[in-house]
Design a protein that fits this description.
The protein is mainly alpha-helical. It starts with 16 loop residues before the first helix and ends with a helix.
Length: 250
């Protein structure tokens, strides 16, 4: 019992993992040369020092493993804080309506920049892709002829006004308070689902990232770079899914 006088005595075999990996052969050879028989306890300062040295090597190895895992977890932890902050704002219901309407303009600007780049001539713009994106995300029906007649600077204001009008019409149909509640529940479900999928993807990335070392690349640096790109894609998916379900959900 704790506090009682006495001492502890530990037994270790040369076949135990600790000794087998860190020095068992050297000590076994020495014991054979000295004529020690099997089953006889070995008590010698040299053996004790060998055990201590093996224990230090194991502790150093385990420390390096824990440090390595912590560095990987630190990357995920930063992303976790960002997602949980977003989730907390949704739960608190702060500026939910304003956030969704600001997303409308952000996504529209992204669509225009992606499908109608300013550096390209209008003849090279992908009007079909823009038409499909507007329908799939906002439910906006527009003809290719109408798109070709619009200047690049007119696109975002025009489609933003149409999307805002659709959002306000939905509010009038079901009531502002009920619409806000549905919006929050929808956003929570999307954030949770996308975050879980992202965690699975990070686990798969971590499992195979060590192989990058064979290509003379630091696996941790590669993990940080690719996990950041995956996180950016996660945030983009969340924004698009929020808008898609907001405008297409009946």
């Amino acid at each position: 019992r704790q506090g009682d006088p006495g001492s502890s005595r530990f037994y270790l075999s040369l076949q135990d993992d600790l000794m087998r990996i860190f020095g068992s052969e050297r000590i076994s050879g020495l014991m054979l040369r000295l004529g020690m028989e099997e089953g006889v306890p070995i008590e010698h300062g040299m053996v004790t020092k060998s055990i201590e040295r093996a224990q230090k090597q194991v502790e150093a190895q385990n420390f390096a493993i824990r440090k390595h895992l912590l560095e990987y977890d630190d990357v995920m932890n930063k992303q976790r804080h960002a997602v949980y902050d977003m989730r907390r704002l949704v739960l608190e219901g702060k500026n939910t309506r304003e956030h969704v309407l600001s997303l409308v303009d952000e996504i529209l600007e992204w669509y225009v920049d992606n499908y109608c780049p300013e550096k390209d001539a209008p003849s090279q713009w992908s009007y079909e892709s823009l038409q499909g994106a507007l329908k799939e995300t906002f439910g906006l029906e527009t003809s290719l002829q109408e798109l070709r007649q619009l200047g690049r600077g007119e696109m975002v204001p025009r489609f933003s006004a149409l999307a805002h009008a659709r959002y306000e019409e939905r509010e009038r149909q079901i009531g502002a308070e009920r619409a806000l509640f549905h919006q929050r529940m929808l956003m929570l479900q999307i954030v949770d689902t996308q975050w879980k999928d992202h965690l699975y993807s990070l686990d798969h990335l971590k499992e195979g990232i060590g192989l990058r070392g064979y290509g003379q690349r630091d696996p941790l640096v590669e993990y940080k770079k690719e996990s950041y790109q995956m996180f950016q894609a996660l945030m983009d998916r969340i924004d698009e899914e929020i808008l898609r379900w907001t405008f297409l959900y009946q």
